[in-house]
User: Fold this.
Amino acid sequence: MRIAVNGTELYYRALGQGRPLILLHGNGESGRIFDQIVGPLARDYRVYAVDSRGHGQSSRGVPVDYRLMTQDIAQLIEELDLEKPALYGFSDGGIVGLMLASQYPDLLSCLAVSGANANQQGLRARWQLAYGVRAAFDPDPLAQMLARGPHITKQELGRIQIPVLATAGQYDAVREQHTRWLAQAIPGAQLAVVPGATHSSYIVHSKAIYGYLRDFLAECLQTAEGGDEA
Assistant:
């Protein structure tokens, strides 16, 4: 399916029934990286696997940055009339999730992120170098965005008032201490470091992240429903 938002067109797949759950992929990928978990998640949720602008089957040749991508998802939620969706984002998708939860505090019910960094210093040194070298020779806007990185402050993270799960691989491109700092900056956030995992090994075409999401979302949404009833 396709939807026009924020001056671009996004492609998404929608599967299942139940509370809405949005899945956001990382840089240079598409919603297809979640092929191993979409089916299991769709047993309990209405899952929206979105291709970000400039990715997959969404519009190409459009401006790309984290601010625009955040606005895209906010408008997608509005246009699809999704009531308090949960969101799971990997890497750049996690960065967008953090910005969305900070800038639109009443939009989401729960947020899970994997391998997300709040700034470029959150990456291990070799990844900072690799992204910088690539951007010096590659004019692709996605490469340039990786080199610039996000700029999410501790104060902005502190504005997030929904339940959050932050995960990272033991050998992630994101420094473990940075993920711990990020989780500490978000009130009440949960943290999980996945043993033996790299940045993407437990997520891209993998079922390994499913158990973490299943348990977190069940607890988070049950709490949210209890609050709604109150």
In short: Helices lie at 35-42, 66-79, 92-103, 125-137, 141-148, 154-158, 176-185, 210-229. The two ends are 36 Å apart (CA to CA). The first strand starts at residue 2 and ends at 5. The longest helix spans residues 210-229.
